[in-house]
Amino acid sequence: MGNSPYSKDNVRSGAWHYLLGRGAAGLAGFATVVLLVRYMDIQGYAAFTALSGLISFVGILASLGMERTLSRYIPEARLERSAKDLASLIWKTALVRFAVTLLIALLLGTFWSSFLSIFKDIQIPFFPKALLCFIVAETLFQHFSSVFQALVLQKTLTKILIVQWAGRLAAIFIALVGDHYISLDESLWIMAVPEFFGVIVFIVVLLMHLNSLENNNQNTIKSSAHTQASWPDWQVIIQTARNNYGYLLLAAPPQPYFIKMVAAFFLSAEYVAAYGFFVSIAERIRQYIPLHFFYNLIEPVIVANYIQNRNFESLSYRCQLLYKSNLILMVPAIAWIAVCGDSTVSLITDGKFQGLSWILVLVMVQLTIGSHVVLLQLILNSIEKSQFLVYASTCALSVMMTLMLATVPFYPKWLLVGSTVFSMVMNLYIIHKIKQLNYNYQPSWRMLRGVLLSGLLAFMVTYLGLLKFSTHLSNIGISMISFISIMAVYSVALWKLNSITRAEIDLVKSALVKA
Hints:
Radius of gyration: 23 Å
Order of helices and strands: HHHHHHHHHHHHHHHHHHHHH
Distance between the termini: 18 Å
Helix content: over 70%
Number of domains: 1
Low-confidence stretches: 218-228
Largest sheet: none
Structural class: mainly alpha
Number of helices: 21
C-alpha cells in the first residue's frame, strides 16, 4: 500500500499509542461504572440501566446502518478519491444521522408518559433534559468515532476517549462533594456533558484533517476513470446501509441494550440493576480482548487490503486469527468468574447482587459467541454480500422468539438466555451461506477444542481446590488465589495441547514490531 494510511507501517506506528490510550479509557470507564453502582441506590441504578438501554436503542435506530457502511467506503474514498469527495460522504451522513436522532427524540418526548408505563419501577413524570442531551451526544459521538476509525486516526480517537471518560470521573467526584449519593438525573448529566464536549472536539479535529488533506493533495486519484465517474454511488451505499440497518434492527431484541429495557418489565429492580451492571463490566472487560481492543484499528486496514487485492484467503485467515485471540483470553475469564464470581462481585459492589454472578457468566459467554458474528459481518460487507446479514438475523430472531415465548411467561429469567441463542444461530447460518457462495471459510475447530478443554480443566482444578479452603479465605483472597490457579493451569494446558502456533505469534509480532 506504499504510503497509504492503511499500510502495516502506519498501523504499527500508532499501535502502542492505541494500546495505552484504549487501556486508560477502559480503566476510566470501569471506574465510572463501579462508582455509579456504589453511590446510586438499587432503584436509581435500575432506572439508569433501563434508560441507558433506551439511549443505545435510539442510537441504533438513528444509525441507519451507517457504521459498517462508513468502514467500507471511507477507506475507498481515502485511497482513491479527493478530499472533497471524502468530506462530502462524512458530512452528509452526519447530518442525516443528526436529523433522524432529533426526530426520534421528539417522538419519544411527545409520547413519554405512554412509553414510561411499560417500566414498572421507573417513576419520571417528565422527559428529562439530561436524557435528551445524552441521546443526541451519544449518537453523534458514535458516528464520529466510526469516521475516525475508518480514517485510521486512532491516536486522536483514543485521546478523545480518555478525555471523555476522565470528564465523567471528574463529574462524579463533583456530584459527590458534600453528599454520598448520586441521583438518576445527575447520572445522566454525568454521562452526557463530557460526551457533548467530545463531539465538539471531533468536529474541530475532523475539519482540520480534511483541510490538511485538501491542501497537501494527499489523496491520490489512481486513474482518469476515477476522476470522471460520479462518486459515491449512493445507490450502492444505500443498499449496503439498508442491509446492515436491517440486520441491526432484527438483531436489536437479543442485544444487551434492548434486554435492559425488556428486563425492566419482566424482572425485579434487583435483577435489572444486576444485569445492567454486569453488562457494563463485560463491556469494560471486552475492551481488553484483542479482537475488540484492536478491531477499530485494524478493521479499515483489513477492508482496504481486500479492496486492493481481493484475496479472500487472506481476509479469512486474519479474521480467524482475531477470533482465536479473543477465545484465548475470554475462556479463562469466564472460568474465573464461574469459580469466584460472587466473592468478586461482592468486593466490587460493596455487598450488592449476592448470588447473581451467574448472570455475568452468561453475559460473558454471549459476548464470546457474538464476537464471531462481528467478524462474519466484516467478511460479508467486504465481499458485498451484506444481504445475508438480514436473512441470518431473520432466522436467528425467529428461533430466539420461539424459545422466549415458550419459556419467559413461566420462567422470566430465561429472557437473559435469548442473546446467546441468537448469536449461535447467526454463526451457523452465515458460515453455511459463505460456504454456499464458494468462499473457503473454515473456523479452526481443533483450536477451539484445545482452548475450551484448557479452560474446563482450569475451572475444575480451581473449583475443587477452593471447596476445601474457601471457608478460611476472605473475598479478596478467594479472587486472587482462584485467578492465579486458573491462569497457571490454563497456560500449561494451552502449551501441552499446542493451541498457539509459531506462525500466528510471528504474524502478530510483525504487526507491532518492525523487523
